[in-house]
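Give me the fold.
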Amino acid sequence: MTVVNEYNLYSKVGYFTMDNATSNDRMLSYISRQLKKHHVDWNPVPYRLRCNGHVINLAVQAFLFGKDKDAVEESIRQASQLSQEERSGARLDTAKEWRRLSALGRAHNFVVVMRSSTQRYQEFKKRAGRVIPLDNDTRWNS
């Protein structure tokens, strides 16, 4: 609103693309109230666009993980914090967690094993002509 006020852009406020956080609804309601003070009737509902990438990511996560996503993530987090000696056994537990997620879990395990060795990675890349990226915490590219 500082920029809107400074440049007198009250009638120029348009669309906002954002994720599904409820705080975004509150922010747009605040902007609407501020614009009304300057005689601009701006209804935030039609001007709020949901980020399609975020919506797709949420849908895919719901499909892949269902209600067990948090348990799987916690298991992976715990396994990553173990010492080197403990890790070999923990990988088996993590793999079991992923395997419970059916074919997609097995695909994940395959990628982890394939990417865990430079030789396996290079051989796969040579034969397949491409690589499979590891999943990550960046929600837009997961």
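The radius of gyration is 23 Å.
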